[in-house]
Amino acid sequence: MKKILILMICSALFACSDDTTDVKDTFYLRNEGADMPIWVRGNLDADKIVIFFHGGPGDCAMCYRYYLKGMESEIAVAYWDQRIAGSSAGNADPASLTYEQFGEDAFFAVSLLRQQYPGKKIYIMAHSFGVELAWQFLTTGENQKMVDGLLVVNGTFSNLHWMEIMREWVVREAAAQEDNKTLEFAETHPVNATTVNDVWVDYYRKMLELNGNPLSLYENKKFVLNYVLFSPNTAMSQFAHGKAYKDYSEKVLFTFDKTDELSKITLPVKFLWGKKDGVVPIEVGYETEALLTGTTVDWTVFDDSWHEPFVSEKDKFIEAALSFVKSN
């Protein structure tokens, strides 16, 4: 029988506080072999909480607090590390890295927040792979009734279609940069359901070579210092997870497709998109909006950003995200 254990931890480093404008609650969600931390930080005098669905898969949540902390003066933010990611622990089987399992984990993570903070409105802010996770969660059963809004940051609804769009981006940029070698590769390597597993890594690398995401987090010395000294993540905990995703990338990645299900979404949606992104080009966002026939989509486009607009245009990102949360 499945066992779910929820613990609240108050440590010396992240001490619990009676001041709800500076809440420092830490929880652990245990589900199907994974011990997943959820750090809640910020202002609980407000009636709204944003839960951050980080990217990857296999990335981390709290390490991005450096860029997202500006939200915490006005709302609370829940930083959740997914299974076999960030500082998650336990003995989760890599075979559990399926969209169904990620979606179930998200259900329990949101349920935990609803249980611990009754009456608070909850919003999902999803980045990159986290967007896939969000669509998985929201299109399952009645789950979307559990939250009050969704913020989408450079993510996709179909991984096969994502690669088709990335190929188009690569061809366009290669032509603009007169990269004939890449154009020759694209001419002889189509992307379709039969070929995608064999060519996607090559297209990803070529996209990066064409400056589809040139910004490195680790070039920011303040970020690195914060990561080393103040983040619960360590290189050992986070980067040791990578090998677990081999089967996921070969067997699961390109099974994800919510094209026919996004019409179910009725809750408010905000898109925050880096216009120069080659990882998930903005065309994916426009196509996603067209599929969301049951709701309306509000947009903020970051003209000087790539895949992580909260890094390159932090203040504008925080302002746009808070505006959406406070108005819904």
Q: Count the strands? A: 10
Q: Name the poorly predicted regions.
A: 8-19
Helix content: 25-40%
Distance between the termini: 39 Å
List keywords for this structure.
globular, alpha/beta, signal, hydrolase activity, ten-stranded mixed sheet, Rossmann fold, 328 residues, 12 helices
Blueprint (SSEs and pairs):
Blueprint: E1 5-9, E2 23-31, E3 34-42, E4 48-53, H1 65-68, E5 76-80, E6 89-90, H2 99-116, E7 121-127, H3 129-138, E8 149-153, H4 159-176, H5 180-188, H6 196-209, H7 221-230, H8 235-239, H9 246-252, E9 269-274, H10 282-291, E10 297-302, H11 309-312, H12 314-327
Helix pairs in contact: 2-3, 4-5, 4-6
What does this structure look like?
The structure is a single chain. Strand 9 (269-274), helix 10 (282-291) and strand 10 form a beta-alpha-beta unit. This protein has helices at 65-68, 99-116, 129-138, 159-176, 180-188, 196-209, 221-230, 235-239, 246-252, 282-291, 309-312, 314-327, and strands spanning 5-9, 23-31, 34-42, 48-53, 76-80, 89-90, 121-127, 149-153, 269-274, 297-302. The model is unreliable at 8-19 (pLDDT under 50). The protein is built from 12 helices and 10 strands. Strands 1, 2, 3, 4, 5, 6, 7, 8, 9 and 10 form a 10-stranded mixed sheet that branches. Helix 2 (99-116) crosses helix 3 (129-138), helix 4 runs antiparallel to helix 5 (180-188) and helix 4 crosses helix 6 (196-209). With 328 residues, it is of the alpha/beta class. It folds into 2 domains: 5-157 and 215-250 and 257-327, 3-Layer(aba) Sandwich (Rossmann fold), CATH 3.40.50; 159-212, no CATH class. The longest helix is centred in the N-terminal third of the chain and has 18 residues, at 99-116.
